[in-house]
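Q&A log
Question type: sequence-to-structure
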Amino acid sequence: MTKRVLFVCTGNTCRSPMAQFLFARMAREAGLPWTAASAGIAATAGAPLSAGAVSALASRGLTDLRHASAPVDAAALDAADAVYGLSTEHVDALKTRFPAAAAKVKLLRAAAGLKPIDVEDPVGEDEEIYAATAAAIEEALEIIVEKESHAPNPR
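Response status: OK
Response body:
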């Protein structure tokens, strides 16, 4: 059974799409039948990945990625089995705007047991900051994927 994961940040051009693409690769490599999507709590529809995100992902072997930002909505949350906000602000906004989905909304780094719990927004920063942001996301995802790959099958 395919599990759907949604990552949410602010504009859906940096953090959440980096999480989406990194997670998709990790899940595939772990043999997990999961799909990933991303959205933003204040996203404008159709914006591309930021140049910094493209660079950070390329340095991790992820290239030729197709992405258009999307605002988060009830349909995206309904379709997701798990929702990860990249900061406390995102989690709070999701739980306030979509209370029916509150039980499946988690803070990414907190769910992995890591601190600091928020993934800082790299927008407007240099490539080094984007690389650090990608590393913070990747660290959490590795733990989450590892836990899930050893979880019992719920059949």
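Response note: The helical segments are 15-30, 51-58, 74-79, 88-97, 108-111, 127-149.
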